Amino acid sequence: MQTVDRDFFPLEPGQRILDLGCGEGRHVIAAAVLDGVDAIGVDLSLDDLSTAQQREAEFRESVSPAETEAALFAVMAGDALRLPFADGSFDAVICSEVLEHIPNYRAALEEIHRVLKPGGRLCASVPRAWCEKVCWSLSREYHQVLGGHLRIFNADRLCGEIEAAGFENYYRHGAHALHTIYWWLQCLFWKKRDSNWLVRQYHRLLVWDMMQQPSLTRALERALNPTLGKSVVMYFLKGSSNPGCPSLSASRGAPSR
């Protein structure tokens, strides 16, 4: 499941990308195996990093050699506030569903700015505010688990803060509208969510949708993403220049608030 839209975040072989807070590796694996870029994932969870390594090997075996490029893939434990990389080390940074977990997220933005090359791209996504508020109202445990969400971001305000940290926003959209309902169901039946029939059936629907990509559900999610998308996804360039930015005249739908 990819939150980053490559139409607005183009990657090219030979580039180097950082997936900050990579978790189990969905974005860093895709970058290395499908985009052919040197991809490094950083996360605090050793268990998640181990899973990412395993999944990268499995995913690379599942695609034909003609589809994959020879590129570096690496994951490591690290702190978003003290990244072990030199200034200007990366052409692009992905920070997807991470900032809401970090107490001092502004310091993390400063580190992202430091390790990005001039003109480098940043994709940052956070949960949509009103969808997240529903989750918090349905279940305290949802955001009080160890490493859970510390805050609910207002997307406009966060976008302004990222721009104040030295970035230029060039696009924004919603993502994963069908997953919003899944998380509401999980929160509603939190204590029995693993065994609840409705939660399990909806999960089966999401897996089927991701694997089969039927036109009906894809069209439905695209229609709902601007208002119901679980994530708000924002794209930035470091500095004021805009080299190679994809044309937004053909973008799909209005920028999401």
Strand content bin: 15-25%
Give the tally of structural domains: 1
CATH class, named Alpha Beta
CATH topology, which one?
Answer: Rossmann fold
Number of helices: 9
CATH architecture: 3-Layer(aba) Sandwich
Q: Topology as H/E string? A: EHEHEEHEHHHEHHHE
How many E strands? 7
- Side-by-side strand order of the widest sheet: 3-2-1-4-5-7-6
Tell me the Rg in angstroms. 18 Å
> Quick one: overall form?
globular
First-residue to last-residue Cα separation: 22 Å
- Secondary structure: helix percent: 25-40%
Averaging pLDDT over every residue, what do you get?
90
Helix and strand content put the structural class at alpha/beta
Uncertain residue ranges: 241-257
3D structure, described in words:
By secondary structure, this protein is an alpha/beta fold. The protein has helices spanning 26-33, 46-62, 105-115, 129-138, 141-144, 155-164, 177-188, 197-212, 215-228; strands spanning 16-20, 38-43, 73-77, 90-96, 116-127, 167-175, 231-238. The chain has one domain (16-238): Vaccinia Virus protein VP39 (Rossmann fold). Strands 3-2-1-4-5-7-6 form a 7-stranded mixed β-sheet, with helices on both faces. Helix 4 (129-138) runs parallel beside helix 7 (177-188) and helix 7 packs antiparallel against helix 8 (197-212). The longest helix is centred in the first third of the chain and has 17 residues, at 46-62.
Secondary-structure topology with pairs:
Layout: E1 16-20, H1 26-33, E2 38-43, H2 46-62, E3 73-77, E4 90-96, H3 105-115, E5 116-127, H4 129-138, H5 141-144, H6 155-164, E6 167-175, H7 177-188, H8 197-212, H9 215-228, E7 231-238
Parallel strand pairs: 1-2, 1-4, 2-3, 4-5
Antiparallel strand pairs: 5-7, 6-7
